[in-house]
Amino acid sequence: MEQDVYSEAAESARHGQRGFSLIETAIAMVIIMVGVLGVFGTITYAINYNAGNNSRAQTLAVLQQEVERLRSLKFTPGQDQLPAGNTTQTVVVNNTTFNVRTIITNNDAVTPTLKDITVTASLSVLSPGWQTAVPATVELRRVRSN
Q: Who has greater pLDDT, 120 or 128?
């Protein structure tokens, strides 16, 4: 029996079937490691990108809420609830702080019949993702009603 084991080892050595060397194994591990690191890099990028999309969606929701509030205010003779000027307010939604800046300008200083309203919402502290660096802006025009 012992002789059979030795003869099989000698036979495989003659045909060049010796298994993997340490260098081949190390090279294979390096190649696999590079592939795994590439996958982790892609996953990290995707997570940051999706976090940025979430922040952008929250910013747009805050912006829409402010625009709806401004649209509900009266702009009639004797009851102008939209005074010209700049205002900045801080809004907190789901533990995220947003800066909302409103600029209201009259087209005529004496008896305004048209107002230009610009509302800009942005994150106070930028989060990951390229979208969060760009503030969401909307411009409205309000016409005085009778």
A: 120
